[in-house]
Write a structure and sequence with these properties.
By secondary structure, the protein is an alpha/beta fold. The protein is built from 5 helices and 10 strands; from the N terminus they run βαββαβαββαβαβββ.
């Protein structure tokens, strides 16, 4: 059993361990960006499926992204409208992004600020973390900390009452990728967003 307090989970994440906590969509597996390889190994995940960076506020994410001033303005306007929330923006990555987060395509990065007070409390203390849903690759996302604890015994999971998890939608985030033609919706999730 590796259920721990928020304080111990934050300390563990900063020390380089994989941790798990609730978000507004499904529970996350998370680690420092440079420790992303641990998540790929734990999930038995193909390296062509990148992780996303999650942070407590947008300001902590922009320096991992690279674009013109006009592009950044568009991204910030979308973030202002939908964050915190279930929208992942896939943007051109800057050289500050550790390549382990997206091994096959280090030129892009997915970023998100979750609409979950617990998640943002943790992220405000750890800084941005590389995240993904808590499950073995190809299987449905696990929904409870008990399931995550059982499937990933070495992962530090948040000691939390299951009633606190009912705020999760269970639906993955909408994924919108920035292209030369504007937004391309890669996955339609909770937030309705159009191409363009």
């Amino acid at each position: 059993m590796t259920k721990v307090s928020i304080e111990a989970l934050v300390t563990g994440a900063i020390s380089g361990f994989v941790v798990s906590f609730p978000t507004d969509t499904v529970p996350a597996l998370a680690a420092l960006p440079e420790k992303s390889g641990l998540i790929f190994a734990a999930k038995q995940r193909s390296q062509d499926k990148p992780l996303i960076l999650m942070a407590a506020n947008p300001e902590e994410l922009w320096h991992f992204c690279q674009g013109s001033e006009s592009e950044k303005l568009i991204w910030q306007q979308v973030a202002q409208k939908y964050w915190p929330g279930a929208l992942t923006l896939v943007l051109p990555a800057s050289s500050r992004l550790p390549p382990q987060v997206n091994p096959n395509d280090p030129g892009t990065i997915g970023v998100r600020v979750p609409d979950s007070a617990i998640a943002r409390k943790i992220l405000s203390q750890t800084g941005p973390l590389a995240t993904t849903s808590a499950n073995l690759s190809g299987q449905p996302p696990l929904r409870t900390m008990a399931e995550i604890d059982a499937q990933f015994p070495s992962v530090l999971t948040l000691q939390i009452s299951e009633t606190e998890l009912t705020k999760e939608s269970g639906v993955p985030s909408t994924v919108a990728k920035w292209t030369l033609k504007g937004w391309e919706i890669l996955r339609q999730g909770v937030i309705e967003m159009a191409n363009g």
